[in-house]
Amino acid sequence: MSVGSELGASGFSSGFGDEAPDSTPFASYQTPGSGPASGSYASLPNEDPQVVHPNDKYMCPVHHGLLRDAVQTPCGHRMCAQCVGSYLGDSASKICPANEEDCEQITASNILPDPGFRREMKQLPVFCFNKDQGCEEKFKFGELSKHSPNCEHRTVVCRHSSRGCQESMLFKDSLKHEETCKHRPTLCDLCGEEYSAYQQQEHEESTCPEAMVLCPYKCGDVKYKRRLLEEHKADCPKKPTECKFSILGCTFVGHKEEVLLHEKDVTSHFAVVCEFALYSEMQRKKESDELQHLKQKVEQLSKEIEGLNGTLKNTHRELKLKMVQQVERLIIAEQKVAEISGGAPAGSTPDVQHVQQSIEQLKLLIPQVSNHDRQIANHEIRTAEMDLRFQMLETASYDGKLLWKIRDFSQRKRDAVQGRTVSLYSQPFYTGRFGYKMCARVYLNGDGIGRGTHMSLYFVVMKGEYDALLPWPFQQRVSLILLDQSPDKRHLKDEFFPDPNSTSFRRPVNAEMNVASGCPLFVAHTVLDNPSNHYIKDDTLFIKVIVDTASLQPI
């Protein structure tokens, strides 16, 4: 799905993307490598460079990386503004993550921005990201992003990668490599065709139509252009030719003059003719014997068919006699039944009447049985539908919280990369028994600007049974959380308030659900695949979605 393919307006006050072209940048910190950042630290790179003079005061005690968008706790410690939510989680307050003796309880309301330290972070001297590749330059942290794209020591791939080159090198060495790259485009001096440099010998020796080549029949030292060679071969005096007696079995092959001389040798061909005549006579005798054998088989089959015809005629005659006998017996039986019902003793008449009444009752029961069968079939269909509905109800929650377990992550991601199953929907969940109906949607290989590099996560408002009684547009705060399965519980969390002008949060009318809204750059593949993280364990991923229900009025 491309950006903007589902919605034309952003639905997040915090800048999430809802697959819309006019969505604003996300202003909260994301784990290094998870996507672009913005806000007061828009010029800071996403990854952590090496600090010239390392000092713990520049490190966030929550995600243990360099501080970005610094805020200050009541006890004077600092942390990233975007780490506050992931640290507090569902708790209203926690002890400061610095874990010192004078640390105090922190809440979302008693943490204040630290603009002075944010300026200090931008002035922090750091090395270039490519220091290990030889770049010794130093920069201010806030200016490093300007240098990185143009660093001479950055790693690049060969510009001929589309032609098959898989090598990577430092940018300063790329021009030298490209001059000798075996995949560099080369033009043939003779025909003007373009090919890769390593294909030059094959092209000149096998395919170039203007290359000069010798006749394969070795008629002389004269060379011909390859495109004209077929015309020469048709008239070449050295072209191999078969003897005209090849039909009789002669195997001689030579050029025109040799064949003419060979055909004048009567003695050698007399032996060939004799051998051919002997072979032909043997074949004729063999075919004659086979024909005689077939004639005998035909005669035998004809006799068998005549015998079968006689047997069938006799059987047919016997069947006709038996049919006549059965008809006669049926007539006699009908006469006896008439006698019993008309002139039989009084004691036997009720029995006959009882049998006739039973037959009439059975005839009346036939349509009733058919109707009963149809009712049973309809009941089985309704039962199957109810079972499916009960299964969905059993897994649904009614407190505004969704815990989504995604098994077989590796296979599902391969399916997404290969385009078989691009996205997955969670089971529905509700804000209450009579509340909003919602679900989550995930693109394991990313959507829009996150395709191929990130996992995209979206929130979806669905059509519910009680929508007519609910206030619209949907205005509840939504939290999207990727759960850390290690004891550290370093969950990745993003929150937003819906945009009341977005169609994603209006009442669904025609479709079963609204356009998905969320974060196309929710988490980078490099973060998910990092073995030091524990977001994927036993090939399983857990996603949690929390919708704030505190402000909802009961119906």
Describe the structure.
By secondary structure, the protein is of the alpha+beta class. It contains eleven helices and 25 strands. The strands form nine sheets. Strands 16, 21, 22, 24 and 25 form a five-stranded antiparallel beta sheet that branches. Strands 17, 18, 19, 20 and 23 form a five-stranded antiparallel beta sheet that branches. A three-stranded antiparallel beta sheet has the order 2-1-5.
* Beta-strand residue fraction: 15-25%
Q: How far apart are the termini?
A: 38 Å
On the 0 to 100 scale, the average pLDDT is 80
The assigned structural class equals alpha+beta
- How many E strands? 25
Spans where pLDDT lies below 50 across 5 or more residues:
1-16, 19-42, 344-348
Determine Rg (CA atoms, Å).
45 Å
Q: What is the helix fraction of residues, given as a range?
A: 25-40%
Query: How would you sum up the global shape?
Result: flat
Assembly annotation: single chain
- Please give the count of helices: 11
Report the biggest beta sheet as strand number plus sense, adding barrel if it closes: 5 strands, antiparallel
Question: Quick recap of the structure?
Answer:
The chain is an alpha+beta fold. It is built from 11 helices and 25 strands.
Key structural traits:
555 residues, alpha+beta, 5-stranded antiparallel β-sheet, 11 helices, 35% helix, disordered N terminus
Could you give the topology of this structure?
Layout lengths: L69 E3 L5 E3 H8 L4 E3 L9 E3 L4 E2 L1 H9 L1 E3 L10 E3 L3 H4 L7 E3 L10 E3 H10 L4 E3 L6 E3 L3 H8 L4 E3 L8 E3 L3 H7 L5 E2 L10 E2 L1 H8 L2 H78 L5 H47 L5 E6 L2 H9 L6 E2 L3 E2 L6 E7 L10 E9 L15 E5 L9 E5 L20 E8 H5 L6 E2 L2 E8 L8
Antiparallel strand pairs: 1-2, 1-5, 3-4, 6-7, 8-9, 10-11, 12-13, 14-15, 16-25, 17-19, 18-19, 19-20, 20-23, 21-22, 21-25, 24-25
